[in-house]
Amino acid sequence: MRRPGTGTTPAVPRQLDRRSADPGAHPSTGPAATDGSDATGGAGEVRRSARSGAVGLVGAAVNGALGFLLTVVIVRGFGTDGSGALFTAIGVVSILGAVCCAGADTALVWALPRRRIGVDGDAARLLPVALLPVLLLTGVVAAVGALTADRLAPVFFERSDGPTLLRLAFLALPVTVAMTVLLAAVRAVRPVTAVVGIQYVLVPLARPVLLLATVATGAGVAVGFGGWLLPVALAVVAAAVLLLRPLGLLAGARLRPDGADWRTLWGFALPRAVSAAIDASSMWVGVLLTSALAGADESGVFGAVGRYALAGLLIMQGLRVAVAPQLSRLLGQGRTADAALVYRRVTVVIILLSWPAYLLLAVFAPGFLSLFGDGFTVGAAPLAVLAGAMLVNSGVGIVQTMLLMSGNSARHLQATVVGLALTVGLGFLLIPDHGALGAAYAWTAGVVAENVLAAVAARVAIGEPLLTRSVGWAALGAGGGAAVVAVLSALVAGRGVAGLALALVVLAVVAVGLLLDRRVRRTVRAAVTMLRPKPA
């Protein structure tokens, strides 16, 4: 029986209408809610995004802490030269892995929420459409790369173990790509806790443990890189197991795709293939360029600085993972106002949590980098520059996800190409004379250009206001308050660890003081209630 409020409208594809009437639809992608005329629809979507977002934020916090631990282990255990080589090898895997995925992972996140899951559904047919071409491509790249590693290694490494590192990177590509595509499918058909458990807990927890064992035993950088790669195989197995039930793979779901399946997925994926490679390589292009143009020491500094800069984006990544399938479903149903409302609420949360952190990072860059050792404190200026770039990046929120989930992968590609061109072009000009600082300026220019262009394209594509007054007030409050506290603390106690500690104490006191206000407490209670997952 058709549920009330799920009748077919011209904006809703037939496959969406079938899925909305499916009582077994998974809550992660959910049965379609009431149509856009329902006054409570937008509020319901915000609550759904908030509950998923809460899980994503917890995962992001865990991932961030473990990522920081991993960086500390790498730079402390291997020094500037060894960490530079290890970051370079990781960069090769990250860039080539994104290239070989060819956009299939994002295409699954976009397409699967618009299909029916289960044994009688049409979602399982997309899995071979996504997996088979990318695994074939990756196998060819891995074989060619492994055979030519001896000749390619001197471009990026000045070490004797350079060919071994590069060969390992190429041979790991098929497993890395399989993990990325399978996790994207898990993200689309399972509750957000599933992908958070693998991507944000299992993999980042295993890596520092294995790297610590490498350092403790005195093994070299190549063995450490192997330890960084090993958890990827565990993630592949876990993701495959999690897909069996929702896609009906054990119950005989049809896996043979038709021509429309190939056209639908790859029509979206091919433009995304290029932009995904650029997204994944945003920092690693800087690492590789710095290694080639300024040496391993500068590359190690930039790699450590970049890790700090990207850590704050884990908040945005956690929320993106949580709400992307929801945005795809809403936009596929033509409910652009509800999708824009979810975007704005998520963006406000990102700004409130990210901007104070990035302002502290900019002001107290010497204190943060001193945790890595004396050799990395020269990265204070590059870190301050990148913190400014990330204020822009987090300030527009998940605008790039919004653009992609609307199906506009070609417009997203245009923005990323402009960003990459600025990063690479300015990198060649600035890195030889300025090292890590030049790389930071180049990356900043690319980040700002890409995000501004994506925000404009998303506004045009969605046809709804995205960055409204509420977003502006959040930026003014979070950014202004944190900036005042950071600057005053730096003037009193300096930009080292002492000044950072003072700023954190003052911010904590201010937060407690705000909680004494009844209106603030009421708002916090409402947020906690909204973020708390409903009982099963």
From TrEMBL:
Coiled coil spans: none
Localization in the cell: Cell membrane
For the region Disordered, give the residue spans. Answer: 1-45
Q: Which domain of life is it from?
A: Bacteria
Q: How does it sit in the membrane?
A: Multi-pass membrane protein
Q: Return the InterPro entries for the record.
A: Poly_Biosynth_Transport
Transmembrane stretches in the record are: 54-79, 85-112, 124-148, 168-189, 201-222, 228-252, 273-296, 308-327, 348-369, 381-405, 412-431, 437-458, 470-491, 497-516
Q: Which UniProt keywords apply?
A: Cell membrane, Membrane, Transmembrane, Transmembrane helix
Q: Does the keyword Membrane apply?
A: yes
Q: What is its main location?
A: membrane
Q: Where is the composition biased (Low complexity)?
A: 29-38
Q: What is this protein called?
A: Polysaccharide biosynthesis C-terminal domain-containing protein
Report the source organism: Micromonospora humida
The major lineage groups are:
Bacteria, Bacillati, Actinomycetota, Actinomycetes, Micromonosporales
